[in-house]
Design goal:
binds 2-deoxy-2-amino glucitol-6-phosphate; seven-stranded antiparallel sheet; globular; alpha/beta; eight-stranded antiparallel sheet
Length: about 600
């Protein structure tokens, strides 16, 4: 969580920093601040609140404008509440060093005690402030050397941006387990937690790796390893466009990203399915022999990505005859998992920066597993430690509530299951042909759901005052129920629970009364009749049923008028389509409730702390 940005060059730094922070606000939005160098002095403006509050704060401060060196921060509080004092940047005793930080310094209390003994005085409750004081302690005329020494004392995770009035021609960055990218410009250079912050200025980037320090001058970038030795680094060119990271006329990123789903799936189809040569999973990095040797698969992920993994389990077990366990990344490490060299770990992550997932996959790798990741962000931390990578190429997902990344992850999981089955000779030609033909129909079906969105909007206006929701699904659509409930709770703050419909009678049925909205996912399927029994049970207890059903299912009207019809689709592929009305329902309910759609309270897009 938290976003950092830094600039050194010829232009005024302040607007670049503020603009970068706006792009990074999805990472944390409880406080924000900037620090710029003017007339040989570090000047700071920071406060609790959003970036727009910071913009108001700096308005009258003209002295902040004459600077072409600075750092900025948007915060998601971990240590110390979101107050003006705890907002970043933080400084040392002299005020000569300013630091922005994303991550957690785990041993900060011990460091702080030592530094206080040595005479340092602290202003905030944050872990970050120790970094500024450590740099002050170690500074002997070289900022990068002082940073190098300081980070050696620190345990935990960090991406740092540091400036010093002693050396106003330098911007220093450092990284351990939190993302940091360098933007390479002409006569100017940048650091940032994520690419959208610098995309407007340059498409040339350098990914900083764990343990590295980067020294930026306006016309030079030098990367040092943990011993201080210079390292050669590759410069990559970003393919994203600036508009792909903007709202393009939609009121919220979430709505824009929901609407992008047909395109994202179309893109997966056009890039991954090629005529006679079949499914192209370049990046998988598994030979046919490796595939035949896979004894078991463990899927590791968090939140929405975990729900995608749950669908993946059904698919892989059905087609590939390989046992699959899906684990929350945060639980995996603590349960003594059984992993061997024939275990394939599939990590799913939109950002590739989720700390729990990174920690879990490292553990699995230590035990000998092969790591294949499904990820959206090129060059992310997860990607760089994976043996193979399947990119979702969904484009930047800015809204905290994940939508297009989910359907893209599902798209890749279908193709992966078919691919593995094919390599194991488990997929007959005709069946393969049929499956791929059906798969190719998905974008059109998604578009059909979007075309009917006004009906979902009206439905939302009848239900937005309900105090709680239950989502029920079976088999492949049980994960859809989990995902529908997660979407609603994270953006509307309405308590919502996803449940396997068959489990309802084992407890949750006690919750049903006329105040409970129950969303039932009932596409054509082999469990259709069982879902109908569940609906009958809910109606008998006066629950308010909302049904997601196939367009041809007219019979289902006997239970309720609240039906969201989706196009007819083979049960196997239904999760990609059934989730879309649930995303829209959550969105419109949250809009009616006046919630902050793209930046829901207490959340952050990338959870880079464990
Ligand atoms: C989804 O709407 C959430 N905001 C969240 O659950 C997210 O999916 C989770 O934090 C995992 O993120 P990742 O895909 O970037 O690893």
């Amino acid at each position: 969580m938290c976003g950092i940005v830094g600039y050194i060059g010829k232009r005024p730094a302040l607007p670049i920093l503020l603009d970068g922070l706006r792009q990074l606000e999805y990472r944390g939005y409880d406080s924000a601040g900037v620090s710029v160098m003017t007339t040989g002095k570090i000047r700071i403006a920071k406060r609790s609140g959003k970036i727009k509050d910071l913009v108001d704060l700096v308005k009258g401060r003209d002295y902040l404008k004459n600077s072409s060196l600075g750092i900025g921060h948007s915060r998601w509080a971990t240590h110390g509440s979101p107050t003006n004092v705890n907002a970043h940047p933080h400084t040392d005793c002299s005020g000569n060093f300013a630091v922005v930080h994303n991550g957690i310094i785990e041993n900060f209390s011990d460091i702080k005690i030592e530094l206080i003994k040595e005479g340092h005085t602290f202003k905030s409750e944050t872990d970050t402030e120790v970094v500024a004081h450590l740099i002050e302690k170690y500074y002997k005329g070289s900022l990068e050397k002082a940073v190098l020494k300081a980070v050696r004392d620190m345990e935990g995770s960090f991406a740092l941006g540091v400036i010093s009035s002693n050396e106003p021609d330098k911007l220093v960055g450092a990284r351990r387990e939190s993302p940091l990218v360098v933007g390479v410009g002409k006569g100017e250079n940048f650091i940032a937690s994520d690419i959208p912050a610098i995309l407007k200025y340059t498409k040339k980037v350098m990914y900083i790796d764990d343990g590295e320090i980067v020294l930026l001058r306006k016309d030079r970038v030098k990367v040092l390893d943990s011993t201080g030795k210079e390292k050669k680094k590759k410069i990559d060119t970003i393919k994203w466009t600036v508009s792909s990271a903007q709202k393009s006329g939609y009121p919220h990123f979430m709505l824009k990203e929901i609407h992008e789903q047909p395109r994202v799936l179309r893109q997966i189809i056009s890039s991954r399915l090629k005529g006679a040569s079949g499914i192209l999973l370049d990046g998988i990095n598994l030979s046919d022999r490796d595939i035949k040797n896979i004894s078991n698969i463990i899927v590791l992920a968090c939140g929405t990505a975990y729900h995608a993994g749950c669908v993946g389990k059904y698919l892989i077990e059905k087609f590939c005859n390989i046992p699959v366990v899906v684990d929350f990344s945060s639980e995996f490490r603590y349960r003594g998992p059984i992993v061997s060299k024939n275990t394939l770990v599939i990590a799913i992550s939109q950002s590739g920066e989720t700390a729990d997932t990174l920690a879990a996959v490292k553990e699995a790798k230590k035990k000998g597993a092969k790591l294949l990741s499904i990820c959206n962000v090129v060059g992310s931390s997860l990607v760089r430690i994976s043996d193979g990578v399947l990119y979702t190429y969904a484009g930047p997902e800015i809204s905290v509530a994940s939508t297009k990344a989910y359907t893209a992850q599902l798209g890749i999981l279908y193709l992966l299951a078919f691919y593995i089955a094919e390599r194991k000779n488990l997929l007959k030609k005709e069946l393969r042909r049929y499956l791929l033909k059906e798969f190719k129909k998905i974008p059109k079906k998604l578009q059909e759901v979007l075309d009917e969105k006004s009906k979902i909007q009206k439905l939302a206006s009848r239900y937005y005052t309900f105090g709680s929701f239950l989502y029920l699904g079976r088999n492949l659509n049980y994960p859809t129920a989990l995902e529908g409930a997660l979407k609603l709770k994270e953006i509307s703050y309405i308590p919502a629970e996803g449940y396997a419909a068959g489990e309802m009678k084992h407890g949750p049925i006690a919750l049903i009364d006329e105040y409970r909205a129950v969303v039932c996912i009932v596409p054509e399927s082999k469990t259709y009749e069982k879902m109908i029994s569940n609906i009958q049970e809910i109606c008998a207890r006066k629950g308010k049923v909302i049904i997601v059903a196939s367009e041809e299912d007219r019979d289902i009207r006997r239970f309720t008028k609240e039906i969201i019809y989706i196009p007819k689709i083979n049960e196997l592929f239904s999760p990609i389509v059934t989730v879309l009305p649930l995303q829209l329902l959550a969105y419109y309910i949250a809009v009616k409730r006046g919630c902050d759609i793209d930046q829901p309270r207490n959340l952050a897009k990338s959870v880079t702390v464990e």
